[in-house]
Amino acid sequence: MRKYGKEKKTTRSNDKQFIELQEKIGISYTNIKLLKQAFTHSSYVNEHRRKPYEDNERLEFLGDAVLELTVSKFLYQKYPMMSEGELTKLRAAIVCEPSLVSFANELDFGKYILLGKGEELTGGRTRPALLADVFEAFVGSLFLDKGIEIVYQFLEKIVFPKVDAGVFSYVMDFKSQLQEWVQRDNAGPLEYKILVEKGPAHSREFVSVVLLNGIEIGTGAGRSKKSAEQHAAQMALEKLKTHLHKPLSETHPE
């Protein structure tokens, strides 16, 4: 009887933490069992065989596919000039383990994982592979409970702003994209100039400007000349995309 009472108390505690999690992410699940499953590690299931727990491995499989689809849609729409190869490379950077771990940590997902005692003692709650799996499983559970549009809205808050901020620009060649755009319209020559170089040798910062026919169309900063130029090209592309239906000659500032 004491063991049964302890399990009942644990279940109530779990319910409370998942209510808290829903408040944190601003989403109320219709089927909270899906949310619990997304955070249930196989080690926890192995230690609670009398309870009808199911681990998150199947949801992880589903969430992986949902992430691929939603991230692909976002990138396809955001970068109309990017090639299939570049899109694939960028998507891979967004859905790789280190990125998924950072998303999970931002939401403090490790706090809510149901782990077996052994996994808990060996630091499973902060293990990168486990956190990445939980993020994918969560996406899978959200897809089943709320549908693809709610998943997309969730990613618009957690993932896509980081793409917009250039977090993954290290895998993107914005200079090539800008060159392709300019050549398409025969708009003229591009030129990059370093405007500012400052900071100590071990922590330099550069500011670059990109010019089209001598007119500034973008500026950017970076830890190297190359990254500053890439950022400048990225900013120029962002401006040009707002004028998709105009010749480049009409997008220049007066």
Can you put this structure into words, describing what you see?
The chain is mostly helical. It has 12 helices and 3 strands. A 3-stranded antiparallel β-sheet has the order 1-2-3, covered by helices on one side. A hairpin with a 6-residue loop joins strand 1 and strand 2 (205-212). Helix 2 runs antiparallel to helix 8 and helix 4 packs across helix 8. The N and C termini lie far apart (81 Å). Residues 1-7 have low confidence and may be disordered.
Shape: elongated
* Structural class designation: mainly alpha
| Poorly predicted tracts of residues | 1-7
How many E strands?
A: 3
| Helix fraction by DSSP (H/I, runs of at least 4) | 55-70%
Strand order of the largest sheet: 1-2-3
Mean pLDDT: 87
> Distance N terminus to C terminus?
81 Å
Q: Beta-strand level of the residues, as a percent range? A: 5-15%
How many alpha or pi helices? 12
Key features of this structure:
254 residues, three-stranded antiparallel beta sheet, 12 helices, 10% strand
Briefly say what this structure is.
With 254 residues, the chain is mainly α. The chain has twelve helices and three strands.
Sequence-ordered SSE layout with sheet pairings:
Elements: H1 2-25, H2 32-38, H3 42-47, H4 57-78, H5 84-94, H6 97-106, H7 117-121, H8 128-146, H9 148-158, H10 160-164, H11 174-184, E1 190-198, E2 205-212, E3 215-222, H12 225-241
Helix pairs in contact: 2-8, 4-5, 4-8, 6-8, 8-9, 11-12
